[in-house]
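User: Um, what's this?
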Amino acid sequence: MNQEFVKNRIKAHEGFRNTVYTCPTGHLTIGYGHMLTDGDDFVEGVEYDKAELEELFDKDFKIAYDDAADIISEQELNIPDLAKEVLIEMCFQLGKPRVLKFKKMITALKDNKFQKAADEMIDSRWHKQTPERCKSLANIMRGLLDK
């Protein structure tokens, strides 16, 4: 798996802002889609250094990577790298708890039914919130051959 490729795709989907902004779901966010938490000390109206926000992205990516690996292990998924990459990006955007709510998608992945997994991605609230990103990732999943 090419982690740099996945990172670049996430960055392209997220876009970049060096100031705090409100994302489409109403959360304060900065950098490449980092949702602010109580532990963050970013201030609205202040421009932050891109290098600092790149480090923050790398930390967020590691969390998403580890969360996807946990899902793969816990759900006993034997899936190709492209499907793993999709899970990483879903974990980055949605977080592990929300990805785990895609029960029918996970069942399809267990059965290596990638077309069904893509259908389940499209049949979601996530698709309504970020349709282009969801379609893009579902199309990657559709590119895999069912077993």
About this structure: DSSP finds eight helices and three strands in the chain. Strands lie at 17-22, 28-31, 34-35. The helical segments are 3-14, 50-74, 81-94, 96-99, 103-110, 114-122, 125-129, 131-142. The longest helix spans residues 50-74.
